[in-house]
## 1
Amino acid sequence: MKPGTDTFKEQLILPQGSDSPVRKQYSITLRIPMLRIHTLLIRTLRIPALRMSALFLLLLAVASTRTFAQGNNAPYSQFGLGDLDNGYYNRTTGLANTGIAYRSNRFLINNNPASFTGLSDQYFTMETAIRGQYSSYAGSQVNVASTDAADITFRKLVLGIKLSHHWGSSIGLLPYSTQNYEFQVPYNIAGTTLQIADHYYQGHGSVNRAYWANAFEFFHHLSIGVDASYIFGQLNQNDIIQATSTGATLVSTTNNTSLQNLYVTYGAQLYGRVGRNWNYSIGGTYSGKGSLLAASTKQVLNNDSIMLQNIQNQEGYLDLPEAWGVGIALTNKQKYTFVADYRYQNWNGVASQNAYPGQAYSLASAQRGSIGFEISKKKAFYNTMVELNYLQAGLFYENSYLQINGQQIKDYGVSFGFGANGLKSPLSYSVIFQYGIKGTTKNDLIRQNYADVTFIINFGQIWYTKGKKFD
Amino acid sequence: MTIIHHYLRKELLILSSFIGALFFLAACEKQPDVGTFGSGQVSDNGSANIVVVDSSTINMTTVYVDSTSTSATGFMMVGNYTDAYMGQINSQAYLQIRPPAGLPILDPQRDVYDSIGMDLFFVRSNPYYGDTTVPETYEVHQVTSLYQLPPFEYAWYSNQALPIGGSLGSTTVSIAPNLPYTSQNAGDTVKIRLDDNLGRQLYNMVYNKSDTITNLATFLDWFKGLCITPGGTPGSAIYGFSADSSVMKIYYRENVNGASVTKSLDFTFFNPSAQWNYVTNDRSGSPIAALVTPTSRTQPPPETPSSLTGHASYVDNALGLTTKLTFPYLSAISQRPDYIGLLRAQLTVIPLAGSFSTTWTLPPQVGIYSTDLHNQLLVPISAANGGPVQMGNLTPDYLQPLLSTYTYDVTNFIASQIGNTSSGSNQVGLMLSVPPPTNVNSYRRLAIADQSFPTQQRIVLSVYYISLYPHQ
């Protein structure tokens, strides 16, 4: 772009469609005054575009540190490892996260590590997601004057590349569970009704999954993947005793539990074509039982925030269950896709060995069933079909791993998604709306009605072009 | 790389805006109130708790100081009464007066001596104590010895008295202290007619312009001073008259153009530091009859355990009584296995049930001080958060006496003592004492039940400590 002008010549790359990516060059002249400052910034600071990308990621990371700290009060996250996150925040989110058998040539489908062989050759992709959630709570213990909550959270950052024709690889960071709760109960002197303070219980933290997954394709119809995850995180539980009259902190106890260990998930997909119009894919995943090494500390601060105790507890283990899932995907004319999944986590098998904090609740085997339907709009560019946008819908029903007051907590809902692939850039965007109901008001429990809006940004580019230039 | 160079710009702008918006939106978090949900599932996970110990042993003693400076208080405390706990109390006031500054020219043909009297004033804010419905008798005496402090003394004390002569005059009067009004129908003034012999003698001195009158030192050397005493009959209350308003008046009549006009020669109050109140206390037959008194002047103020004084200790500074509190087993709290720190400590002083009423009122302010093994009144104990000197925050409740309590934040003191196991630490304690200036102006007394009384009626030290069991 020439200095002092409002026009510049922009290189255009077409988005990656459902088939092999195409790269075309177009020269167009655009008049975009609003970009002057931004362009000037780039020029003045001499920041190359890739560095801008790095800057963008840095900004995103900073934003994530901010947004990770946010979180709705999720009453059920008090138990176990917190709220297990069954979302993948990817192309399948609009399908109610149904995607064990789903394959994509430009999106990373973390639902099954075997899916990464579906990426286009030499294709690099990066994806991040942000979710806003609005929740409304109901139940006999919920204060009717304060039933709502809203938050925005950063959900993931993943990268993937098709290293060779039969080898896809991905790394990334995904949430495993989150904990965020608070409640207050009167604190009476033992044996009396004399209330001297309130216990303000507060828990927050998250367990995350950093993974490296590799998938290998065999016989053009079978993909095997291994997802080696390092699960880590910290759950902080505060018990703050506050003066009833003033709310001033009298003493606080913070239990920090750091969790870490490796967790491996295996996946497989079998796929092919039936007739001229139908493509099929069958997938399965399996994770063996794992154990999280739990190192906990306890800190007690007095009313002047002076530390009275700092105790390093003996390390222990919190077990993760054996889990498996199966799924199927059927695509008609490269446009209509039907997907269905079933997932199972055998928490019963580890319940007796676990030492999760809390009492009067139990772990139960979790099951999740979901279906989804997708319409993909594609356009032919030369000999290739390029996806322009897509619409998705999904349903899910889940029996969670928590059983409280004799009720296994259920979660069910619907999702709708829309995605568009940028015509002038390697970016694509997805917006997914999900509405769900978790829990019940029976047996003094709480029902959470929630509405999520997830925004996913995907960046894709061909790498290893062997020196070929495009301008 | 060049491919990205241009077309990324627009998207980066959009994304930057998006992230910026995210920063703002992230601050819009709100949280619901889910009540106590989850409290039933909270396990005993080893959190610190607050434990209250209100059964700490408190040793109470009444410390007796044989005298206290009562000079220059501004009030002449005069009266006697019998208190159910303190015995019989008698207080009389010494003062000096001076002749009129400008002497009138008296003419025997025109001026005639009439009378001499003493005026005492009691205004609404002046202290009083006891049953004010009973008439009180007041007598005026002249000091007969040298009106002078003993060697090496610099103030008059409550146990010091000078010889006095016979009564110059007396009156019996009822005083309604809250109006105030006296039965003499003279408003707030108590008038005492004095001996006319003295009156005539002084009148003649004025007439003669005697050096005794015109020279203040000579006058004081001759006249010395006065002492206002309660009458010989037992009274029921004590009143604090305004010292600086007291005046002895010589009345004379002057013939002015055939009319008789009453005039006076005012001998006004002189030298506030020479005015003091002499207080005696006959404890025989009272609960404090066994009070330990000092046997020598150099002895520290002795203390008497509450067990020897009716299972109560007392605060009545005018009589030299303060209460000392020690906590012999305080360190046992810090030695509990779950003790990790002190949160706060509160001392609740409950007046002895039945010991106070609308007649025998409680001192509205009782200060709390540190004290040592010599029973000295040391520095005031401040609350944990600082603030003014603590006075107990009493709100008297005469219908429910047990709700009338003095409370003190003694966190700072307990924090310093709870881990103190050194020798002599048991003698370091707290002292309850009426703060100046009311300590010598007010005779209101406080009786405090010791720990032999039921829990709800006795003094309580509540120690709130932070508890964490080591096995958790």
## 2
Amino acid sequence: MFAFPGILTLHAIGMGFAVGTSVALDLRILGVAPGVPVAAMRRFMPILWAGFWLNAASGFLLLIGYPTKALTNPVFYLKLLLIGAAMALLVRIGRTVFGDAAASDISGQNASPRLRRLAIASLVCWASAVIAGRLLAYTYTRLTQLH
Amino acid sequence: MHAFQVWLVATLGGESPVADVMRTAWAWPLAESLHFLGLCLLVGCVGTFDLRLLGVARRVPIAAVHRFIPWGLLGFAINIITGALFLLTEPDQYIYNPSFHFKLLFMTIGGLNAATFYLTSYRRVFGAAATLDAPWHARVIAAISLCAWIGVIVGGRLITFYRPAECVGEQTSLLLICAP
């Protein structure tokens, strides 16, 4: 499959921007760059979503390329689960800090304990998803279907 | 350059306590996972700052967004360390690999580009008279930065597809891309 390395490369780039931008938002909530209003981080979210959809598309193509390799590996389902959890956390964090009722969480370092927990959970989910994804290359048992 | 590459591979060795640990079952995958996490941290934090220079979230002071940069540097440090582990274990797989050459080229561009930013734009961007809009040359630097780090990812991700074969016949290319 000639396109495989190219799609894999796009998948790595999309990961960098999707996970990286989400991590930057989490770090901001946890007190990094206190001069940046948390609500202003909303401006960077389009690059996160661009990375996410790039990876949904490139990931789908990788799955079509080697369906047996992924679908027979439990780690693949774990990775999907972790990405789902990370995206659900992102949406919840977004509602809290970008929504209309965000005023109390916007300024300075005073993120609520609940918001901080969400940010830490987000970091853990993303890190686990990236590790699970990387381990797919080492944990598969079948590359293609046995005849 | 050929002799230098051969010397480099011989010097880095591939036979050391580090290489022994890296050849255990899970050390290499673990180091790779850390390398990917470092990538995310680097691209996320440096990319956010680059986008700010390019005009995203332009009401936020540039200096405030710059506070993400140390975390990007942490990602870079993680990747230099994990990258060194790979290089020390299988030096010939990188030193003779054209994709790794491109990765180093883009890393150099990214590094020189960042140095240029601090040398030319620091006062304009962070000084007392700093404005919300970055000067044009800082915007150019930000765009180059984004392209350079994407280039680094491309070069890194493709390393595995350009593993060097044994050299056959005389090599005339500037850099050796086969194992002598």
## 3
Amino acid sequence: MAEVTAPAARTQGPAPRAERAVGRRGSFPVWRWVILLVAAVYFLLPCWAALRFAGIKAFGSVFSQAGFGSSIWLSLQLAFVTWLITMLLMVPTTVYVHLRVPRLRRVLETVTILPIVVPPVVLIVGVLQVMPLALRGSVWLLSLEYVILAMPFAYRAIDAGLRSIDVKTLTEASQSLGAGALTTLWRVLLPNLRTAVLSATILVVALVLGEFTMASLDLQTTFPVWIVEFDQLDAQMSVAASLFALVVTWALLMAITLIATRQSRRTGGGEVTLFTAGSRETIGN
Amino acid sequence: MPTDEIAGNETTADTATAAGTAWAGNAAGAREGTSVSLRNLTRAFGATRALDEMSLDIAPGELVALLGPSGCGKTTALRIVAGFEFADYGEVLIDGKDVSNVPAARRDMGMVFQSYSLFPNMNALDNVAFGLRMRKVAGAARRKRAAELLDLVGLSAQARQYPHQLSGGQQQRVALARALAVEPRVLLLDEPLSALDAQVRLRLREQIRTLQQRLGTTTLFVTHDQEEALSMSDRVGVMRAGKLEQVATPDELYTRPATAFVAEFGGVPGRHGILASRN
């Protein structure tokens, strides 16, 4: 208990400076609110316009449209499968590279960024050319494609998480206590990468739920594809569906973030936001 | 912060004594003491030889410090004993058996690291209990034992706290309890005090030595601080460029240094502080 008060006593030295800093910080919130307001207008105005265009009534009937349920279900399934494959692939790989071949980190960084450089159209058309027939007709081919598409985001999130903890020491400590590699990964590393894994999850899920090009070229009616197709029949309804998709995605991401924040608060980790993967710090002396 | 740490430690020392006696009683029967032998350990990183035909025998229950400047190979030696690195040739014998092919997880050694190594996702008690869990000790027995160990290092009150809520000195004490909880055959200390400030370091140094003597655990201790090495150890090995210059009791090292290097580095505390603090 006494230790908690000790640092406070220590900061008494440079008090005037600290006060000034607080004063300066005191004027910050005004600007924060202004920026928030501008951003909010930028995002909400189109939403409001869409709402006006579609009309409230369209929302009621959007759920009963043909293909609505099946397309959203397909998108959710794809998101889950993509997430699963991404995690199974990227977490052990990134950990291994960090621990055993740190020299390859640069290479991995470059390789994982390639999907951003290569346009999705090229990626899917190329893959469809060379895929065996059995996979070409399968929905899950799309998942495999999405894994590649999500790789830059997933890798960066997990990499940031690994940088924020002392992977080497934690692994060695775990080993010296008798834990094997899998136990170490599951009980020691993963719990401390939760923030990073959740950031990766958010990015992967958002990506899959919004992807249009690949799904469309692969002739799969995912939710974004359905919206565009439906647009030709009923523009109002289509806009209502788009808004609905926005709300669903937003709610899903909020839920993931909330779970992450609650969990990490328990163990003293940092706040979870979309882009601060692994901001966890341990207090030293 | 330092004042709190010391105040905490004073009460700590008393509780530690009481609990330690009881616990050492149980442990004494289980362990007869383990001997450790390093034979001709050689390890090269590129052109530099981190270890050059290094040999050392540690008697059961003995605490031997490896002392030397940064880059002299002392940490490499410790890591080879732990199983985190491997010698190009030479062997490590535990009770006469070569363990070179035994993975770190099965060497049955407790290790305290230089940097804070507690698992951030577990509280102090779960950290201490981790090794027991790996050895499939049942839940109730595991918690009881972990609590005993925390008591031993005087941190019973902090059992439910997470590493980020503990001071540096407290974290290293939990790490020590965690390493000792599994009743390791050998205790390895890799500069466990160097991240702490001076006063905490002094207290913890005494605490480690007292515990080690009470439990009789064979211990290899790596440090670049000659005062630390001389005050804690049964014997000190002074290392230079991958070789042991001299292995002797602190007294002998101080009064009869074998080489000029030993006299400079191990003999006169303070004079070569610059060299020592470079690590």
